Amino acid sequence: MERLEKHRAGSPGYRIARLHRSSSAVLARRLKDLPLRWGQVPLLMGVLNQDGQTQGHISREVRVDPACAARGLAALEELGLVERRENPACRRDKLVFATDAAKPVLNRILPALDEHRQLLLKGFSPEETRQVLDYLDRMIANVEQEL
């Protein structure tokens, strides 16, 4: 087990995964009164960011498998938060639009995300905040370049 601990000690991936799991648990608690699950929030945010995108574009934007995105969007559609329409330019594609019911949900998500950002950056100076965001962006770019 010493080898495992040594590996974890120098692993940014271990820390990022742990942070992700803990953050997801905190956010799920903060959003427990919403009709959607925490995993559906990035999909809804992707739709709200730009109405009328294809499912494939949303999938790539939020970095989820296309089948997972399709299931998540179907669940959001059942909740009445999005609607999928046939793309007139390509009948195989579905375009996804937010419904009027999605906007009040967004108004409840954004304050929770702001509180979470404050929690994550608690005790960091403005310079440290810029640095940590820069480091994370660089790590993301490294991994995405590999993809």
Kindly describe this structure.
- The protein has 147 residues and is mostly helical.
- The chain has helices spanning 2-9, 12-30, 41-49, 55-62, 66-78, 102-120, 126-146; strands spanning 53-54, 82-87, 90-98.
- Strands 1-3-2 form a 3-stranded antiparallel β-sheet.
- Helix 3 packs across helix 6 and helix 4 crosses helix 5.
TL;DR of this structure?
This protein has helices spanning 2-9, 12-30, 41-49, 55-62, 66-78, 102-120, 126-146; strands at 53-54, 82-87, 90-98. The protein is mainly alpha-helical and 147 residues long.
Which strands sit side by side, in order, in the main sheet? 1-3-2
Secondary-structure element pattern, one letter each: HHHEHHEEHH
pLDDT < 50 runs, ≥5 residues: none
Distance between the termini: 31 Å
Give the integer mean of the pLDDT values. Answer: 91
In what range is the share of β-strand residues? 5-15%
Tell me the total number of β-strands.
3
Task: Record keyword descriptors for this entry.
single chain; 147 residues; mainly alpha; three-stranded antiparallel β-sheet; 7 helices; 12% strand
